[in-house]
Amino acid sequence: MLELIVSLFIPYNILQNSVFEFRVNYKICEMKINYILYSIFIIQKIWYLFRFSLYVSYYSKPRAQRFCAMYNVEISIFFTIKCIMKKYPKFYLILGSLSLLLTGSFLLQIWERIGIVPPNYSFDNYFNCIWYSFSTMAILSFGELYATSLVGRIVSAFLVIKGLIIIATLTAILRQLFRFGDGDLKAFQNLNEVKDLMRLKTIKQQTIYNTIRANFFYNSYEKAKQDKNNKKIKVYEKLWKFYQSEYMRSLQEQREVKE
To answer: Going edge to edge, which strands form the sheet with 27-32?
Structure first.
């Protein structure tokens, strides 16, 4: 019954010159009634297409009805929407964003350009309408464009609400995308364990090398001291202390990897 009543909202020739007056910023604006009916007509057609796509989906067929009856679940449009959002979240996000962006931009252009008197010439270009809708949905409105008609402001408010829903949905999708499953977590942990073992092996080899070099240059340093060769004493002392510090650093790295 409600849909039958809504179907009566179509433009009529007898209302061609009828207007609805309202005040914006202390200015009287006139809104053409036929454009109100035309906007409702457009939204109604989009709703019919959306509902038809839900009815022909897998989650509205007799099999889905039987399963819902088994588990005492009421099958409805909202159940189908939830199933589609759960099964195809990316498809829902992209299609919902694009459809709302294009439809909202079209309604804004109608109302801001020819639906009110005086018209808002900033919305002459359809791409300006798309930019305004996108920035409004992303909550990034810069203020260079703004709606002055009543319906344009209602559409803008709806775009903000839908933008928040899309952002929340995108956050959930990204969280699900980067969440580790049981198998992913086990593979990740095993890979890290193997990586740490390989690193520990490399550090141990480096520690042995630094120990040998430090001992060699220490012995050379002691021999140079006995020979009283000051030039060699300085060189061997620097090399001995360098490899000794490298040896201590290797031991510290081993402790860090084991922890």
So the answer is: 19-24, 27-32, 116-117
